[in-house]
Amino acid sequence: MSTVWGSNIKITIFGESHSSAIGVVIDNLPAGVPLDIAEIQREMARRAPNGGEYSTPRQEADEVEIVSGYFNDKTTGTPLCGIIRNTNTKSSDYDVLKDVVRPGHSDFGYYHKSGGNNDYRGGGHSSGRLTAPLVFAGAVCKQMLRLKDVFIGSHISSISNIKDTKFDARVEGNMLENLTRQVFPLVNNAKFVAMDYLIKEARSEGDSVGGTIECAIVGVPAGVGEPFFESIESKIASLLFSVPAVKGVEFGKGYELAKMKGSEANDPFRCLGGRVFTATNNNGGILGGLSTGMPIIFDAAIKPTASIFKEQDTINVITGENVKLNLKGRHDSCIVVRAVPVIEAVAAIAMYDLLRYREDL
Amino acid sequence: MSTVWGSNIKITIFGESHSSAIGVVIDNLPAGVPLDIAEIQREMARRAPNGGEYSTPRQEADEVEIVSGYFNDKTTGTPLCGIIRNTNTKSSDYDVLKDVVRPGHSDFGYYHKSGGNNDYRGGGHSSGRLTAPLVFAGAVCKQMLRLKDVFIGSHISSISNIKDTKFDARVEGNMLENLTRQVFPLVNNAKFVAMDYLIKEARSEGDSVGGTIECAIVGVPAGVGEPFFESIESKIASLLFSVPAVKGVEFGKGYELAKMKGSEANDPFRCLGGRVFTATNNNGGILGGLSTGMPIIFDAAIKPTASIFKEQDTINVITGENVKLNLKGRHDSCIVVRAVPVIEAVAAIAMYDLLRYREDL
Amino acid sequence: MSTVWGSNIKITIFGESHSSAIGVVIDNLPAGVPLDIAEIQREMARRAPNGGEYSTPRQEADEVEIVSGYFNDKTTGTPLCGIIRNTNTKSSDYDVLKDVVRPGHSDFGYYHKSGGNNDYRGGGHSSGRLTAPLVFAGAVCKQMLRLKDVFIGSHISSISNIKDTKFDARVEGNMLENLTRQVFPLVNNAKFVAMDYLIKEARSEGDSVGGTIECAIVGVPAGVGEPFFESIESKIASLLFSVPAVKGVEFGKGYELAKMKGSEANDPFRCLGGRVFTATNNNGGILGGLSTGMPIIFDAAIKPTASIFKEQDTINVITGENVKLNLKGRHDSCIVVRAVPVIEAVAAIAMYDLLRYREDL
Amino acid sequence: MSTVWGSNIKITIFGESHSSAIGVVIDNLPAGVPLDIAEIQREMARRAPNGGEYSTPRQEADEVEIVSGYFNDKTTGTPLCGIIRNTNTKSSDYDVLKDVVRPGHSDFGYYHKSGGNNDYRGGGHSSGRLTAPLVFAGAVCKQMLRLKDVFIGSHISSISNIKDTKFDARVEGNMLENLTRQVFPLVNNAKFVAMDYLIKEARSEGDSVGGTIECAIVGVPAGVGEPFFESIESKIASLLFSVPAVKGVEFGKGYELAKMKGSEANDPFRCLGGRVFTATNNNGGILGGLSTGMPIIFDAAIKPTASIFKEQDTINVITGENVKLNLKGRHDSCIVVRAVPVIEAVAAIAMYDLLRYREDL
Q1: Which of C105, C161, C301 is the closest to D254 by Cβ?
Q2: How far lies C175's CA from each of A188, A284, A298, C282, in Å?
């Protein structure tokens, strides 16, 4: 297992869906920074299961106890550890999973990896629940980034085959921050009705739908990134692909770029009034792994929730028999909505790791 | 900068396009393994600029001198260092780039990152030339993986808007190895004519085209991967996005998955004659960051070569003036062909890093 | 700050002397190993402040709550997080330390490092209290090492100028395990009276004494260690010197070796009945950073407790005035006794990190 | 193997005593710094085998070829790779070592570690020759440190039982720099005759002697160091103990501290004319892993050269027979003299890694 991430800061996460607690240690934060605890808790609430329209019925307040690294309302520079208790666990729902692996989930892999010693309840360590500590760490990093005038926000760029309008190449910070205040963030709110319908239809069928999330980071000056192996893309993608449901990532125009000619794809540099920019932003603010000063834009594909209530074919890993599975438990019919703050969180963690020692911002 | 990568093995690369040499150090290889040097050189030749149809006219033999870690025709377990001399450099072609940054390249970012002290000749450290040491490291890792019956191969899944047939969910090792013997690897060779035409058309226009590469890894047993942060997807993606031209990555059906319902996306586990498999492989052999035992399949989007011979708008970074740029130098009109062994190499490095200590294979 | 350690396992510690809790996350343990929880708690008790003869009057049960990575009485292979609540804190004792730095302590350094934002209560993050999570991690590693027949034990090799007999070159595991059952472990128990007298004399004077601890690790086969930078000596020393009171470390004969001739220092290899050994063990079982198969022996110098009750000269860091300091609080007059399990713990962590993937043991 | 070191910079070394070359890659240096190449070469010459009085007869110019990361006489910020060719190798001297392991050397360990696949010629990767790349990296780091007014120097604090005077608690930078200009650096030059005699006597006997080296670092402000695990002591010691001959390390008064009372050991803080200092410096400028602003002082014990020309008992690892060994080859009768620049180099690397991002110096 590898649950430590980062170069300049280090994030260590721990916990399982049904262990007594989950949490995260953030190492090497600067000292003397007051944290807006209410704002952190607001980020937690965006992701928390609350029994709402787009959420599993499991209810968790997801209040974070900061047990270290914080004194007199400021960071001390020592490791900040946040712990979240698991309270609303219904482990009995998962008894069947001792033997029967869920399609679309990591149960089969963990069974083999651990020699049958994995905590199968609720998906254990690979549960979406482990994204809660990430959101906490991301909320802290977002506050550190704001001190450097770097802002992050995102929208649901699609649910199934319904697409939202993409970010403008020059998307700005206040628009992004506004999006973080919305339950169902969209650039074009007219798309809500159709997306909402698809999600509820899937739920009524005991099925699920996926979608995509587009995220932007603004305020990063030119020249940030640590090639060869810590390009901005590498840092962000390595965290995005740690989130179990993410199966695709694009920077800038992504796959569309592969269809363009060089003369179309290249973003011409321009200078106006002493300010350098690119006339287009096909490359998503990143060239050769380094920022250009334009908004950093990426998109992540989220697969449909693997837990569905339709009968599925699978196997009993102990006996090797082919069996039918009818899942119990509490699940989201579309995790894209609750994944939005997670995607922003990993963007914040990745970006802050790259900017930690940039004093020229 | 961050030019060291890996957890169980460590890859350190160095060099610039026009420095005296480029190279790589591979740390923590096992001792006592004979390397097939001819096979390594064959991999180098796949990527090397050779003045051929799909290559820049710059000619480099890209012969690797192994300077350490190899004794009596076997690895010693100490760091294996391979050095490649830069011979065919025409630095004068790049004099204009002291001041004028190329659109689509990292020149602007490096100028700011280094305070104007970057080696601008040929793109310096961010040149595609730095993928040569990666191919060497990948060739070594491929040989280590073969000892564990793990095989890697890939094909050009598209050039611009012309698509090749995708890999079958159960693609096999010998087909993959055969693909590595082809100059222009395709699943459906009937697509060659149209692709070839697009590339040559772009060249004749002084322009360039992009494409995509699909890669498969077979023979990885179930349960490999190191979540949370070293999921198979994270490891492979972090290396893929270090390659400057890669702007999108998908695992399995990738973005298509986001449009499916859970009941379609979930790959049902089945058992037949004691062998477990999934009836479909939409998830590309990876669930929750862990292998399922099915072929691991991913795809990478390669943007069109940024260096084109059409006049482009850009700026002089010293004076801040808007200027026109007419590039000299030697460039590929489509780097996708030479990128194929690079994509395989990073897949091999990532996978071997995850499998280094698996003795049960 | 840097509170993550390890290559094959990763240890992340957090907490301050007076924060709500301290703890540790241990990443990449094998799955399926039952832990002897009572044995872990016994190790915790060896270090815990218990108001006993050789301890501060502060009383802490130091019971560890394992919050993750443990299921059905076995490790799951996911991060094992242990949390220890701080209960018996008397923060008011430390109010004076807001401004006045204690000689021999890190207060002055932390004041500058954190810009005055450090948690000064009880030494904050640099308190000896942070060795409690280390002892927990060490207790876990000791159990993992026992599965490979590797045993660790130590004795108080000196208190002030009173020396215990050194370990025999061929010290054995059962002797070492017996030593871990003693409150005041000595090879020659006749030395106890004089050592005990010195400690009590220092306490009665409001002063403190230091000493040394010799530790042995037996059962490590030849060829373990990861030069160049992860020699056995480097791994052990890097952890030993993280413990704030350690100011010197020797392997084998250490400084005595520097006075020998090569013909005396070299340990001759011998073979008897198929078993290879060295006739002497001046090098402490390590040559060129690798184990020889002989007992690994090292010694650590522990400075006298910095907290004393004699009046001391120091400064007020805010005003820059020279002042007199009369410490309150609760302190050990000799921390050597309670440091014994800490030294063993870091030896266990370092050694297990090196042996994690050795399946040939 | 583990041949990558560092947190903020990364050092990767490679090579064997008789491989075609040895070298080092230094990652994450700042861009735009001119290096004094002559000064680097002077440091190389201090360590190089030159056939002189205190050196093996093997002669190596140890000229470093900088192959990357340096352009227009300045660092570019990309990895600086320095390569040193091995020229004066007499591999035939080592044929006997295929089977017969040298006492005091790592041959036996490497034989087991590599399954008999190690490069036994001249000690392979564990040869003292691998300290040449360290000296190069250290020379670069020394120049970076000088930009921050940090200076490093050392003296031979003992040869066998003859001791030099120790550094004054307030040793200054110019004295340290002067010491680096001496072939046989001593605080009290009157000790030279006796030391020189011991070395030459040992040589005439075919034997060897050891000694100790005391090193000081001045100019480091208070609050530098990264506890818990990257205390200044941990960083320096982890590198020191990578050097095969180092068997003991002390910071400040080291083992003497363990014999003091707290009231003697604690260094009282004083303030005079706005400048804070400690009246004594028993703790070697480090408390709790952090600098106090006083000179950082440490000492390393170097064992006598393991290669001697007296007949020794050892074994044949293939047959298991007890045999007599009469070494050929070229060896120093006292490596302490040539180890001086190595000790300084690792101090410089460790210190620069800690100071890399300190812009307030």
Answers
A1: C301
A2: 74, 65, 61, 20
For A26, the 3-state DSSP assignment is strand
How many Cα neighbours within 13 Å face the side chain of D140?
Answer: 32
> Which range (B91-95, B249-253, C76-80, D19-23) has the least confidence?
B91-95
Selecting from A2, A23, A117 the residue whose C-beta is nearest the C-beta of C81 gives: A23
Segments of chain A scoring below 50 in pLDDT: none
**Interatomic CA distance for residues D154 and B112, integer angstroms:** 39
C119 and A78: CB-CB below 8 Å?
yes
D295-328 burial, b at 16+ Cβ within 10 Å, e below that, comes to bbbbbbbbbbbbbbbeebbbbbbeeeeebebebe
Please indicate if any CB of chain C lies within 8 Å of the CB of A79. Answer: yes
C254: region left, alpha or beta (phi > 0 left; psi from -120 to 50 alpha) = left
pLDDT digits (tens, 9 = 90+) for B129-158: 999 999 999 999 999 999 999 999 999 999
CA D299 to chain centre: 11
Interface contact D229-C251, CB threshold 8 A: no
For A190-344, where are the E strands, in sequence order? 211-218, 246-251, 269-272, 275-278, 286-287, 290-291, 296-302, 312-315, 322-325
Among the listed residues A281, A300, A282, the one whose alpha carbon sits nearest the alpha carbon of residue A211: A300
Contact call for B31 and D119, based on CB within 8 A: no
Q: Which two tokens stand for residue B216?
A: 């498969």
State the count of interchain CB pairs (< 8 A) between A and D.
4
Separation of alpha carbons A127 and D177, rounded Å: 58
Among A243, A348, A237, A342, smallest CA distance to A298 is for A237
Q: How far apart are CA A80 and CA A131, in angstroms?
A: 17
Alpha helices in A76-230 (DSSP H): 107-113, 131-146, 173-179, 192-204
Residue D57, Cβ neighbours under 10 Å: how many? 13
Residue C269 contacts B, CB cutoff 8 Å: no
Query: Cα C231–C235–C238 angle (5° rounding)?
Result: 130
- Mutate which: A166, A229, A278, A311, vs B, most B CBs within 10 A: A229
More confident site: C341 or D361: C341
ipTM over 0.90: yes
Helix (H/G/I), strand (E/B), else coil: C261: strand
- HEC string of chain D? CECEECCCCEEEEEECCCCCEEEEEEECCCCCCCCCHHHHHHHHHHHCCECCCCCCCCECCCCCEEEECEECCEECCCCEEEEEECCCCCHHHHHHHHCECCCCCCHHHHHHHCCCCCCCHHHHHHCHHHHHHHHHHHHHHHHHHHCCCCEEEEEEEEECCEECCCCCCCCCHHHHHHHCCCCCCCCCHHHHHHHHHHHHHHHHCCCCECEEEEEEEECCCCCCCECECECHHHHHHHHHCCCCCEEEEEECCHHHHHHCEHHHHCCCEEEECCEEEECCCCCCCEECCEECCCCEEEEEEECCCCCCCCCEEEEECCCCCEEEECCCCCCCCCCHHHHHHHHHHHHHHHHHHHHCCCCCC
The structure tokens 């241990």 sit at C26
Q: Tell me how many degrees the CA angle B268-B270-B276 measures, rounded to the nearest 5.
A: 120
Amino acid at site A187: V
Cα angle, residue A134 at apex, residues A119 and C119 outer, rounded to 5°: 110
D226: closest CA among D286, D268, D308? D286
How far is Cα of residue D145 from the mean position of the Cα atoms in its chain? 17
**Which pLDDT does position B51 carry in this prediction?**
67
Q: What pLDDT is recorded for position A51? A: 67
Question: Tokens representing D345?
Answer: 């180099």
Return the structure tokens found at A64: 């974070």
Q: Which among A2, A15, A68 has the least Cβ separation from residue C21?
A: A68
